[in-house]
Design goal:
The chain is mainly alpha-helical. It has 14 helices and 5 strands. Helix 2 runs antiparallel to helix 11, helix 6 packs antiparallel against helix 7 and helix 7 packs across helix 9. It starts with 10 loop residues before the first strand and ends in a 34-residue tail after the last helix.
């Protein structure tokens, strides 16, 4: 339908649910797949790229790390003869709290996760941040070096896939937040060779680690299969989709547009209107959609609550509670 209205569909973004990953694998005989030929493209041979939502990937990576030797203890991540543990981040949090220098943004909410906070993207991004990684690299000792390296790689990965504006990279002095403008951008090489190369080498090191380890024990040393597949798919898809857009007349690309936050925010408003009615009928959904459209000026000015980061919007509509001016009616002569 979108092709009929001359809209070129480039990518499909979703979370890393098993149903979505099975759909991707259907296009490659059950193997990992990040693109498929677009059968509805009539102008040229074009691909449809599968992208796992970057904020969801950051949350799942943080959840893997939070379970490494801590909490549920379902993981015990290991790479390059060193452990990657949540305890290293806890030590940095305690060190930062005792020094009272506030070198990181870590709080108790970042460390002691709850069913609500585990869905918060902002908390996950602040754990896997440059400030935490650099502080851990400096004060974490020899055992914390691999954890620090992994956090710094995740920080750059999320920055590359979360470019939201033209000026943000200049304001924050981070080159990874600048728009993609050229086909030979250095961030493409970082994503494919340095970041994804690190993850692939990690997986190979776990598979070939000497010792009589069971399969379940080796699985604890590495990320979950869904997280690994999501990282692999997103890196390849983002690189090729961005390069395709740049080579076809697009001046610059903001990779944040590949995220599904706008859809989550929109349907989050539907869930808020429906309250406990989590299975609305078509009539109820249409009624709620009309209500959102009629109140769009107010709804768009409010920041939604949930597991999305939110989008900064300009307040182009001024909302006032002052009474309306009285209209003088003409007197009958």
């Amino acid at each position: 339908m979108l092709q009929h209205f001359f809209l070129q569909v480039i990518a499909s973004t979703s979370d890393k649910a098993s149903a979505n990953q099975r759909l991707y694998r259907m296009h490659n005989d059950g193997k990992m797949c990040y693109k498929t030929p677009n059968l509805f493209a009539t102008d040229q041979q074009r691909y449809l790229y599968f992208i796992s939502d970057a904020p969801h990937l950051v949350k799942t990576v943080r959840n893997n790390l939070a379970s490494s030797g801590w909490g549920k203890n379902t993981k015990y991540l290991w790479n390059n003869e060193k452990d990657i543990l949540w305890r290293h981040i806890v030590d940095i949090y305690r060190h930062d709290s005792e020094s009272q220098l506030s070198m990181t943004k870590l709080t108790s909410d970042h460390i002691h996760l709850t069913p609500h906070s585990v869905m918060n993207v902002k908390l996950a991004a602040q754990v896997l941040s440059y400030s935490v990684g650099s502080l851990l690299m400096a004060y974490g000792g020899e055992q914390g070096q691999e954890t620090a390296k992994f956090i710094l790689l995740m920080d750059r990965f999320f920055d590359c896939l979360n470019v939201r504006s033209i000026q943000e990279g200049h304001h924050k002095r981070k080159a990874d937040l600048l728009p993609f403008r050229t086909l030979n951008d250095q961030r493409f090489e970082f994503l494919e060779r340095e970041f994804l190369g690190y993850v692939l080498a990690w997986k190979q090191a776990v598979d070939s680690r000497p010792g009589n380890f069971k399969k379940s024990e080796r699985n604890k040393m590495f990320l979950t299969d869904q997280t690994f597949e999501g990282l692999w798919t997103t890196v390849h898809s983002t690189i090729e989709a961005t390069q395709y857009l740049l080579s076809n007349g697009v001046e610059f690309v903001l990779t944040h547009t590949f995220c599904q936050d706008p859809l989550e925010e929109h349907f989050g408003r539907h869930r808020g209107l429906g309250r406990r009615a989590d299975n609305p009928s078509l009539w109820i959904f249409g009624y709620q959609e009309n209500k959102i459209r009629l109140q769009r000026s107010l709804a768009m000015a409010m920041q939604p609550k949930g597991n999305t980061r939110g989008v900064k919007r300009s307040a182009d509509v001024v909302i006032s509670v002052s009474p309306l001016k009285k209209v003088r009616r003409p007197r009958n002569k």
